[in-house]
């Protein structure tokens, strides 16, 4: 039986997933949807019906949808501005539903802890839709590293860039009250997460520098951090550059150098003179497949604990930058699947 799914937020990411999911071998039953944009709702309904499925029921807001449909759903997918993630995740959990939640899970660690408490009270699952957490390509390299193939991890560097400033001009992503930050909070969070996912380790210390270039949100910056084991990590971010969006994460081991894309689209492994390249692709189908498996009792590769750790990291990066780049210590642990 396919997953009975409700959708809270029908924007571009939700629409992209809908196209992939409805064309899959076991498409979900998209039962009900809600969004503040009539155009987004119309587009989403069109995607579902063009795939040959019945049109989902449309509700004016999430509260109305959950009140009317909780008994007809197994789970909800929340894809709203970041400021509403905590509200809708908690409401869905209270209604007895599993939650697939867009990143970042919350605006700060305090909100993240409230989501964890709601999950525990409900006894349901919550999966955060970070592509790197759900990427079979990245998981495969983590397992090879942990099996000892590459030797000790010595250092990590990474970068991500995008024409984020012009790409999202006028969008809610550039309203900090809705987004929780700017480019580094948004696109940059994928880089923070990818470091954890490919190494299997959390952050222990961090110092950060953020620059807004005169805007009300950060656009460029960098961090110097350590992950567990005392491994140094240097990450840089630029959200106001030439059109495009690319990333590279480089991991230097005793016996290998691994470079990969933070969304799990490609990887290059150098072992001596031997270089191998692998293509993965963003796992649109894997997001739903893994979420469905987790809802059915499988282990969760993208937990709320991991996103609590990232929320604390973001809190400390902002604090470090405001206090002159002082190094700060993290107290949470991500509990990454080994």
Q: Describe the main β-sheet briefly.
A: 9 strands, mixed
Number of domains: 2
Second-tier CATH architecture of the largest domain: 2-Layer Sandwich
Count of alpha/pi helices: 11
Trace the largest sheet across and list its strands: 14-13-12-11-7-10-9-8-15
| Number of E strands | 15
Describe this structure in words.
The chain is an alpha/beta fold and 338 residues long. The protein has helices spanning 12-22, 38-50, 62-69, 85-94, 109-122, 136-146, 164-167, 176-179, 188-199, 284-295, 304-322, and strands at 4-8, 29-34, 57-59, 75-78, 98-101, 126-128, 153-162, 203-211, 220-227, 231-238, 245-253, 257-260, 266-271, 274-279, 328-329. Strands 14-13-12-11-7-10-9-8-15 form a nine-stranded mixed sheet. Strands 3-2-1-4-5-6 form a six-stranded parallel sheet, sandwiched between helices. Helix 1 packs parallel to helix 2 (38-50). The longest helix is centred in the C-terminal third of the chain and has 19 residues, at 304-322. The two termini are 30 Å apart. The model has no long low-confidence stretch (mean pLDDT 95). GO terms for molecular function: glucose-fructose oxidoreductase activity; nucleotide binding. Residues 142-258 form the GFO/IDH/MocA-like oxidoreductase domain. Its EC number is 1.1.99.28.
């Amino acid at each position: 039986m396919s997953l009975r799914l409700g959708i809270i937020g029908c924007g571009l990411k939700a629409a992209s997933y809908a196209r992939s999911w409805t064309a899959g071998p076991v498409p979900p039953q998209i039962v009900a949807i809600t969004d503040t944009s009539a155009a987004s709702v119309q587009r989403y309904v069109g995607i579902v019906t063009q795939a040959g499925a019945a049109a989902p029921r449309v509700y004016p807001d999430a509260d109305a949808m959950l009140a009317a449909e909780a008994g007809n759903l197994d789970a909800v997918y929340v894809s709203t501005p970041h400021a509403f993630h905590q509200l809708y995740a908690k409401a869905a959990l209270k209604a007895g539903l599993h939650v697939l939640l867009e990143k970042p899970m919350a605006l700060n660690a305090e909100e993240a802890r409230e989501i964890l408490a709601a999950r525990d009270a409900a006894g349901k699952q919550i999966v955060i839709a970070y592509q790197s957490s759900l990427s079979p390509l990245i998981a495969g390299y983590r397992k090879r590293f942990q099996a000892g193939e590459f030797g000790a991890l010595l250092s990590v560097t990474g970068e991500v860039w995008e024409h984020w400033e012009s790409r999202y001009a006028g969008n809610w992503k550039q309203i900090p009250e809705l987004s929780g930050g700017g480019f580094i909070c948004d696109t940059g969070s994928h880089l923070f997460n990818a470091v954890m996912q490919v190494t299997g380790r959390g952050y222990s210390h961090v110092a950060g520098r953020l620059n807004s270039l005169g805007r009300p949100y950060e656009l460029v910056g960098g961090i110097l951090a350590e992950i567990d084991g005392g491994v140094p990590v240097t990450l840089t971010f630029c959200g106001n550059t030439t059109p495009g969006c690319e990333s590279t994460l480089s991991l230097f081991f005793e016996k290998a150098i691994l470079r990969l894309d933070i969304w799990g689209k490609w990887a290059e492994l150098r072992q001596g003179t031997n270089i191998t390249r692998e293509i993965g692709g963003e796992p649109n189908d894997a997001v739903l497949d893994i979420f469905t498996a987790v809802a059915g009792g499988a282990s969760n590769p993208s937990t709320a604990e991991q996103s609590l750790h990232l929320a604390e990291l973001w809190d400390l990066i902002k604090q470090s930058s405001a206090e002159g780049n002082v190094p700060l210590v993290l107290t949470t642990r991500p509990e990454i699947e080994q």
